Predict the structure.
Amino acid sequence: MAFGFAAMLFGTAAQAQQRPDLTVAVNSLGNKMDPADTPLAVELRIYGSVFDNLIRRDYAAEAADPSKGAVFVPALATDWKRIDDRTVDLNLRQGVKFHNGDDLTAEDVAFTFSQERIFGKDAMLPGAKSFFGCWKPVEVLSTYKVRIAACDADPIIEAKLAHYSAGIVNKRAYLAMGQDAFKRAPVGTGPLSFVEWKTGDYIKFTAFDEFWGGKPNFSSITFREVAEVSARVAGLVSGDFDIITQVSPDQFDVIKQRDDLKVLPALLDQFQGLSLVGNDPAISDKRVRQALAKSIDRDAIVKFLWNGQTTVESQFQATLLGPLYDKDRAYLNYDPAAAKQLLTEAGYSGQPVVLRVPANYYVNGESVMQAVQSMWQAVGINAKVEIVENFAQAYGPGSAAVMGGIGFDLPAPESLGSYFYGEKALIRQRGFPDGVPGMDAAAEKLATIDVAKRKAAFSSMIDIFNDQVPMILLYRTPQFFAAKSNVQWTPTPDFRTDFRPYSLMITGNK
């Protein structure tokens, strides 16, 4: 079924001919394009340049100097000011156009974060409230000024406003179309303006030449669904595609042997690791879990399974946390002798420790689990690997460790909340029914804008991670794109593809 709107063409025909029509091959088109509607990674790769945020992260500045932590810069808001520990005032950029020709005003911002859409009892997208928390109705201070206030102390309002869930939508289009129609034909302010969606085949966008950030460096972008990675690579080699997503390392040689193609690596703000089922009898003693962590040679996994294309990660922090990051903090690093001693102290006597991973879900997932199995067996752990169909099976009876990801989609410790702390924390369903001991109390102290107090609270949380070991981190999650050599584009640590003029340029002939 095709969903279409007439494309609005701007500029002269000569200008359009000077800019290429690009095709991006993706593994899936997803099902929706609405920022706050629990977006999947495959969906963010498509509509990341349809919507803009009030604030954005400057990934280029962060990469140039990681010691800065997360760098927030103006987007649809030109500036903002903290009023208190729960309130932020923002001045909006004037002259910004939506794809339907409407001017961006404070009413669009107020609707984006409204009771009607997110926070109310009968909200259209009630799931988004779990991310934003409790916010009061946005106060419209003038046509181009808003006040956003949380119900309680919220030190990360600015970070939430830069998150992919906080893209600003057009109020008039959203209400006229309804959420179901809007998510299939979105109206935003970004450089991609929706044209057509043919389910299972492609989604087409035209360049939005009235984009407030400058004229895009393309005429149109079509995202085409190509499920198999080998087919995506073949299409890139043949010239049918300009960019492809989700390239696996076993395809690198095919691409690198061509002078007109290149691999584009990126490290996500996410870690790959093993979620431990704390109430599994084999690992219920925290000393056994500590031994599991100390018996994994992460350097070897990164070197031999990833060819050094990612970084070893062993603790729940990252430079993007800025002043909360402690580069000198120690963790349960590789120490097989210490692992054996811990197993002896815990009285471990050979009970099976079952590792599970969903089939073909993570790149290198099965290979990593087999490597971990071998390392655990080397210190005397009776490790067994099981390949399952889905996560329901992975966390079914008998499981001790499951491969999974955890990350800082917000550059703040609060990113860990949905999994590790709070009454609704996912880990309560995955082996720690009463929560991780001490974690909830430590996390409560994050609710302050006092940086020193936040750092102390986070430090306590890391102490608990190291002691209780509810998850073992392995490495930072890599993602790989590939493109024609004339495509000048750097993927970001965000799942969103950023095709704004400062990010994407095409040199020479297509």
